[in-house]
Structure formats: C-alpha cells, structure tokens
C-alpha cells in the first residue's frame, strides 16, 4: 500500500494488525534458527510490535524499519525505553534513526534503507510485512528485502492465505505457491507450519471468508 494509507491508519488508530502480546508463532519457532545470542535481527515494517522486545530480551540486537513516526514513538513510550533520535540527513541516511539500548528503529520508507544501514544483520523476522503489500507491489518488497539482507542470513516469515476475492486487504493473501515461485531463487525455504486460523479472526468470519490459514517459513538468504 502507499504510505498515505498507513499514515491514515495510524492517525485513526485503526491498527487491528497490532498484537497486545508477543506473537506465539515467534516464540514457538524462533529457536529453530539456532542463532547466536548476540546476533542482529532485522524486522521490516515493524509497527510497534512487542516482538521487537521479545527478540531484544533474547539478547539479540534488533533493527526495525517503520514508516510512521507515531508508531515508533508509541513503541518506545509504551515500553518505557529511553531513546536518542537522529534526524534524517541527506549525507548519512534518508530515515530518522531512533536508538534505544538494544533496539534501533529506522523511521521512514523501507525503500530508502540501505544495506550499509543494516550491516551486521544476520537474521530477520517478517510478520505482517510481506502480506501488507498488494500483489502488484509485493515483488518489489521481496527484491528490496533480498538486497538488504546479507547472504546466509536466516529468518522467519509469517504469511496468511485466504481466497483474496472474499476480502479487500491488507492483509493480502499470499499462497504457498506465490512464496515458492517468487522467493525460492533468493532464499532456501522450509514450511514449518500451516494452521487453520479462521476461528481466531472475527473480521474474516464477519466477512464470510470461507477459510484462512497462517503459515510460518524458515528462510535462508542464498549466496
Ligand atoms: C500490517 S502492519 C505490521 C506491523 C508489524 N509487523 C506487526 O506485526 O504488528 C505494516 C506496517 O508497515 C508499515 N509500513 C508500510 N509501508 C512501509 C514502508 N514503505 N516502509 C516502512 N514501513 C512501512 C506500516 O506503517 C505498518 O505499521
């Protein structure tokens, strides 16, 4: 979606995607990646997710990217983290940078982030980022993610799939076939789980979406 869409959602506090707890799928599957405690984890389109806190509590250095400044400020305020803000500067970065102890958030458009800003990243976590893009923009996101991530970095990807014609996204439906067809050239992919989650999603039930699955993939950047 275009930036204005997301800014209006944050302004109107319509953030149904935000979970009030750490994503149970992250807790369940993260250890599968077998990462060193001090590794650096990139979280694209991070919102104000508590998953950032969970990853930092594991000892990881966490680097997120989020478009909306209110989201970033709420993240630090709601978790009582002191931070230092470095404004965007043409010669250094096109994004505002917010540094707390173990968490750095770049505030601005992911497409303006550079691999230099992510140097040191070994891992990544995508929940509600790939599925935030309509199909016409999704491939550009995958290409940007691939460009930003160093070879051999590993991560988790969480997707949703449902009959797209039954509901206007976001979240957008991303099938296993789409993931395999469009990401397998750049990532080794392993499907870790695929669960029926319709009953936990009243918005989808109310719109009479007939089925809804949530999948978790383990990824490794090729190269
Ligand atoms: C569906 S939400 C998911 C947030 C988070 N991953 C979570 O699990 O709560 C997508 C987020 O991506 C942000 N976003 C959208 N487009 C972006 C872009 N081009 N660059 C950075 N962030 C973006 C939105 O502001 C929104 O907070």
TrEMBL record:
It comes from the Bacteria. It holds the Pfam family TPMT. Its EC number is 2.1.1.67. It is an enzyme of class 2 (transferase). GO terms for biological process: methylation. Keywords: Cytoplasm, Methyltransferase, S-adenosyl-L-methionine, Transferase. GO terms for molecular function: thiopurine S-methyltransferase activity. S-adenosyl-L-methionine binds at residues 10, 45, 66, 127. The keyword rRNA-binding does not apply. SUPFAM superfamilies: S-adenosyl-L-methionine-dependent methyltransferases. PROSITE patterns: SAM_MT_TPMT. InterPro entries: SAM-dependent_MTases_sf, Thiopur_S-MeTfrase_Se/Te_detox, Thiopurine_S-MeTrfase, TPMT. It is found in: Cytoplasm. It catalyses: S-adenosyl-L-methionine + a thiopurine = S-adenosyl-L-homocysteine + a thiopurine S-methylether. Belongs to the class I-like SAM-binding methyltransferase superfamily. TPMT family. NCBIfam families: PRK13255.1, TMPT_Se_Te. This is Thiopurine S-methyltransferase.
């Amino acid at each position: 979606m275009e930036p204005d869409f997301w800014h209006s959602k944050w302004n109107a506090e319509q953030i149904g995607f935000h979970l009030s707890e750490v994503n149970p799928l992250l807790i369940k599957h993260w250890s599968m990646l077998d990462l060193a405690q001090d590794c650096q984890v990139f979280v694209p389109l991070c919102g104000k997710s508590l998953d950032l806190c969970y990853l930092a509590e594991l000892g990881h250095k966490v680097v997120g990217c989020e478009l909306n400044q209110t989201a970033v400020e709420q993240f630090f305020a709601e978790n009582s983290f002191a931070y230092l803000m470095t404004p965007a500067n043409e010669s250094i970065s096109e994004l505002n940078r917010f540094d707390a102890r173990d968490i750095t958030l770049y505030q601005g458009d992911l497409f303006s982030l550079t691999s230099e800003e992510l140097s040191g990243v070994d891992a990544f976590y995508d929940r509600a980022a790939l599925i935030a893009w309509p199909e016409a923009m999704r491939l550009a996101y995958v290409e940007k993610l691939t460009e930003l991530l160093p070879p051999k970095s590993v991560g988790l990807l969480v997707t949703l799939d449902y009959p797209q014609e039954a509901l206007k996204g976001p979240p957008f439906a991303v099938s296993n076939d789409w993931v395999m067809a469009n990401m397998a050239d750049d990532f080794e992919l392993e499907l870790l789980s695929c669960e029926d989650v319709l009953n936990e999603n009243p918005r989808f039930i109310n719109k009479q979406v007939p089925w809804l699955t949530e999948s978790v993939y383990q990824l490794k950047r090729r190269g």
